[in-house]
Amino acid sequence: xxxxxxxxxxxxxxxxxxxxxxxxxxxxxxxxxxxxxxxxxxxxxxxxxxxxxxxxxxxxxxxxxxxxxxxxxxxxxxxxxxxxxxxxxxxxxxxxxxxxxxxxxxxxxxxxxxxxxxxxxxxxxxxxxxxxxxxxxxxxxxxxxxxxxxxxxxxxxxxxxxxxxxxxxxxxxxxxxxxxxxxxxxxxxxxxxxxxxxxxxxxxxxxxxxxxxxxxxxxxxxxxxxxxxxxxxxxxxxxxxxxxxxxxxxxxxxxxxxxxxxxxxxxxxxxxxxxxxxxxxxxxxxxxxxxxxxxxxxxxxxxxxxxxxxxxxxxxxxxxxxxxxxxxxxxxxxxxxxxxxxxxxxxxxxxxxxxxxxxxxxxxxxxxxxxxxxxxxxxxxxxxxxxxxxxxxxxxxxxxxxxxxxxxxxxxxxxxxxxxxxxxxxxxxxxxxxxxxxxxxxxxxxxxxxxxxxxxxxxxxxxxxxxxxxxxxxxxxxxxxxxxxxxxxxxxxxxxxxxxxxxxxx
Length: 506
Description:
- This protein folds into 4 domains: 2-140, Agglutinin, subunit A; 149-255, Agglutinin, subunit A (Orthogonal Prism); 265-362, Orthogonal Prism (Agglutinin, subunit A), CATH 2.90.10.10; 383-499, Glucose Permease (Domain IIA) (Distorted Sandwich), CATH 2.70.70.10.
- The protein is built from 1 helix and 49 strands.
- The longest helix is centred in the last third of the chain and has 6 residues, at 494-499.
- Mean pLDDT is 88; it is low at 1-24.
């Protein structure tokens, strides 16, 4: 019989228990780290705080880092030494010793080099690190946690770390928690149709049981959230690109109202995949027919192709085709017109545009249909803050264009579109409205006055329609109009956007 002290660290709390057991001693689970000096042996393990990786000192003498799926990420290759111990030495050494005579099996890092060790840490990113008393790395395994792939949905409480991916049932869309801290929804052609605009190391995305979707950085507070409420059961990524948090009764608590309305050059719709906009769908069917369905699910237009397994492809030469392998079954005959994307418009038309937004083809007439735009207000007003300006109010760069407008001045839709966000509690923009327009363009009007916006999510708006009024809500220093423009998830300079279309901004 022998006594052994079992230590388990939980955050800042250390639980100590004296255990009496017969040899072999009980294995010890450490959470996150173990302080030097310490010995690991006979099943002792250090589990990362997020539970994704663990270092196990096995009874056969091999030290192994395991992923959550029990696959080995790293090993010391010291098996065959039953009862060996991994010593985390105060002198900075990390050494495996035999149980029989205490001789050295393997030196991972030699001690006595002048750098004292503080602790051995199993990090959330999957790297095992020996830290000095000054918190510099003395040794590391160089391992990374394995991403987890989900399909359709995840239960609330699931923590998605970097690389973790949720795919829609058909595989057309994927929600990714990225290494850079950004949460994004991608199409097969890597168009971004949704993103959190967050950044930082060791971020994790959590759909919570209280109905809120939250991104946390490390052990700190949240850096992004939806502010949604209500008891939730699961988070789903639908085949239309929409992120939906469902309640236990099957009703939707939160919707991102995101979708893909565009097919970019080099991208193809596989059988069963589709574009969607304002209730319309353009579907590449399994039977080989490409069909646009109306909001009442009636066939509005079709290519009348019929070879199963065909795909709808926006080619790099500017041609839009339905093809099966190398065989073209239908084409728009637009090669050479500089078309870069095919867009399903809010009225159900299929439109091909160049990079500058100019139309070169549509499915109704086969000719160009010009898009029309206007500034989000009437009158001539001075620009007060340019795009990407860095100052004390915008240390990371201004994400749009500001005009100095008086309080309560009408704010208007800059083109036809659909309201995808209308909120009164944005932590930066205060009262805010986002509108999705043609060609993947999304406009954001922020800092609106109390009582704005005067439209709701899902509303169809027309060019020039009043959607709210200027104010000073959110992080703001005076009444003004703030406009942010993105296209397919990419931030644009509003000045260039308008002036390239012949519209003066001031």
